[in-house]
Specification:
By secondary structure, the chain is mainly alpha-helical. 58% of the residues lie in helices and 0% in strands.
Length: 194
């Protein structure tokens, strides 16, 4: 055995000495870069938050635009039907749209054209819409429905002529078309209906 101890070879970097001013400059640069990196990470987080907000707003805008387009279409339909029928009665407009949607899609005319054709020839209009096109034909008079409630003592109109339920119904239709409800109300009052 030998008494020699092996010593590791000298490290090449340990032999190199860095001057303190260079060391301070490198440390300062490293700290400056770390501060910049932290600032950039904060800016990146804020930008990602803004981007997610922008995505959310874009989706909301898309949904609002779709809803606006749907409402615009519904209003256009309402406007066309109410103009053709001459009424703003929601039930009448719904009935017209329902009748239109029942037509087969193949060869279905535009809504305005369909309504215009009925205005020209009211006999071709569905029965539910004929009163709005002013048909002159008298359909078979439906049986007078039984009156509900106590019988009225006097069923004469203010002018003295007898008034039945069908006449009252015609007065109501006239009032819906014209907006003048005075005659209808007077006859209801005369019948004791309030």
């Amino acid at each position: 055995m030998s008494d020699e101890t092996t010593t590791p070879p000298p490290d090449s970097t340990s032999a190199r000495v860095i001057d303190p001013s260079t060391y301070d400059r490198i440390v300062a640069a490293k700290q400056g870069l770390e501060a910049k990196a932290a600032g950039l990470e904060e800016r990146l987080a804020a930008a990602e938050e803004r981007a997610s907000t922008a995505d959310t707003l874009a989706k909301q805008l898309e949904a609002a635009n779709a809803k606006a387009a749907k409402l615009e279409h519904q209003f256009g339909t309402y406007k066309a039907v109410s103009g053709a029928l001459g009424t703003h009665d929601g039930d009448a407009i719904d009935a017209a749209v329902w009748q239109y949607n029942r037509l087969p899609e193949d060869g279905r005319p535009e809504l305005a054209d369909w309504l215009g054709s009925m205005r020209e020839d009211p006999a071709k209009a569905p029965a539910i819409l004929r009163p709005f096109f002013g048909t002159t034909e008298d359909p078979a008079k439906p049986p007078t429905p039984k009156r509900r409630g106590p019988p009225a003592k006097d069923q004469a109109d203010p002018a003295g002529a007898a008034v039945d339920d069908s006449a009252l119904r015609l007065m109501r239709e006239h009032a819906i078309k014209t907006g003048d409800w005075s005659r209808y109300r007077a006859h209801r009052k005369a019948l004791g209906l309030g």
